[in-house]
Amino acid sequence: MIGVSPRHRALRWPQSAHEARPALLLFLALLGQPASAGANEPLALTHVNIIDVTGGPVMADMTVVITGDRVTAIEKAATIRLPDGTRVVDASDKYLIPGLWDMHVHWYDERFLSLFVANGVTGVRQMFGSPMLTEWRDRAWGPEQFAPRQVIASPIVDGPNPIWPGSIRVGTAEEGRKAVLDIKTAGFDFVKVYNRLPREAYFAIADESKKQGIVVCGHVPSAVSALEASDAGQKSIEHLTGVLRGCSNAADEIAGERARVMAGSSAQTGIDRATREMLSRLVEKLLDTYDEEKAAALFARFARNGTWQCPTLTVNRSLAFRGDADFRNDPRLKYMPEGIKASWRPEHDPFLGTATAEDFAVAKRMYRKQLETVREMRRAGVQFLAGTDVLNAFCFPGFSIHDELVLLVEAGLTPMEALQAATLNPAEYLGMSDSLGAIESGKIADLVLLDANPLDDIGNTGRIAAVVVGGRLIDRAQLDEMLASAERIASRRSLADSLFQTIETQDVEAAIQRYRDLKASQPEAYDFGEDELNTLGYRLLEAKKVAAAIEIFKLNVELYPQSANAHDSLAEAYSINENKALAVEHYKKSLELDPKNVNAVEMLEKLGAR
Question: Out of 56, 158, 276, 320, which could bridge 364 as a Cys pair, Cβ 3.0 to 4.6 Å?
Fold first, then answer.
């Protein structure tokens, strides 16, 4: 449904088997995460109640011993003998669960990664890959740094006219196979496919991925049915894309009409009012033509093929309810930077800016049907992953995984099944069940200590007393300070907003001078990070102010000359401005700084310079 390019951090980006990559490679990558740095002294959580996410009964009054980054003993509190020097934490009347995973996020600001951990999220699946994210994944983090483990998708693989900038453009079977090889070589963990892939390209990608031992997941392209995607081995379907279409007795007609209607739309052009009206009518037709027999057959095929579903009900709900003022009045907004908060307003969304109350009413009807569909798939034995689509509107890093678990229970899963969707199931999906996913001796000590039983009320996953990340205990006071730090950073004013207004009322030269003046006089009042200028540059491109965008990107390159992303963005602006020589120069520089930059390789080939 929604994909966010790392090169457009503050923009909202919209929505829409089974040969896994060798587990050892992923295992080694995950061990490089911050969670791998364990404490020096043994740690014991005593008198704790353990939630057995494999489905067993609650294990009451237990002691869990952690040595380094591993659980090394689990025994009855009354009988265990603790090693000398053990740090003892009395966890009486508390409940222990494995660390949570958010299996669908887009996040590109390192300063806020602690929000995941502060909410018990010890692992994430990043769904629009970039070299920066693979660097985060592989980094040896310091003892004072807290970030979730990360598995990283490729950049979005879309058709020749992609929805999102930065996507890998694929139009033929040959290009699809090459994309898979490039993605694997660049070190991404899996291939993410998207809406506009042609049929022959999609099936070539699915076939080549099997040969290369790398997973395919993502959206179901418009040219492919959900049943075909399942049979082709797509390991997971995100946001329920293609699922309701696969349940309609007018599927082909609806798919063809939607592709025609959306052909000229992208993240940069948005959707005009006439297109929005046609899309709402198509949604109504999709719902009116739902066929229960087709649905049952499709869900049975998902279960048989092992096609996972990551419904991301959190973002689906946001798409339906963002027109409601009460929904937008969320107290957690205080943790989000100004630029992100601004982009979450419907009027700033390129795909929702023209939506009316009637359109949102249709979207709410669609959301209710999605809840019913999850309920029916659960009855059919389909497996689920908990994901939120973080960075899209009102999908908060860390916080929203608890929203997702509540919504999964509302859709018909039991509290245990919802909890499994964020713990046991991600470990199985990633091929990491030997090390993650449950509380067992020998497994990595990523744990969340709760004040109440989540099996009584799944909302209790948000009542966090402490988090253990790779054996390191973070108590409630430390968690509160992590939240307070994020709030302080988020309170800084958006430089992109301020400079955009200066360009609107004066010119880009005045905006650049204002940047320099503010940085000298008010260094703590504004966000002067690289992403702010990058965001401003893309806002200017969206507003067709290409010359001004080039000057802003040039300033970013001046300030961050070793940033591959800064050079890549400037190259893109030069390409839009049809300045091939300078586009090539900066794409080459970006690739020199980061050889994993798949986008730079593709663009240099497109420009005939490689």
Answer: 320
Q: Which two tokens stand for residue 330?
A: 């969320």
How far apart (Å, rounded) are the C-alpha atoms in residues 573 and 568? 9
pLDDT the model gives residue 573: 95
The number of distinct structural domains making up the chain is: 2
Phi-psi region of 213 (alpha: psi -120 to 50; beta: other; left: phi over 0): left
The answer to whether residues 388 and 531 belong to one domain is no
Cβ neighbours, 10 Å, residue 501: 12
pLDDT tens-place string over residues 291-333: 999 999 999 999 999 999 999 999 999 999 998 999 999 999 9
Task: Please tell me the predicted confidence (pLDDT) of residue 479.
Answer: 97
**CA–CA separation, 388 vs 1, rounded Å?**
11
**Taking the CB of residue 316, how many other CB atoms lie within 10 A of it?**
23
Same domain, 412 and 506: no
Domain boundaries, position 249: 6-16+100-429
pLDDT tens-digit series, residues 23-47: 333 433 444 444 333 446 899 999 9
The CA distance from 161 to 423, in Å, is: 37
Domain end call among 429, 447, 470? 429
pTM of the model as a whole: 0.87
Residue 275 and residue 142 share a domain:
yes
Rg of the chain on CA atoms, in Å: 24
Phi, psi of 422 (to 5 degrees): -110, 5
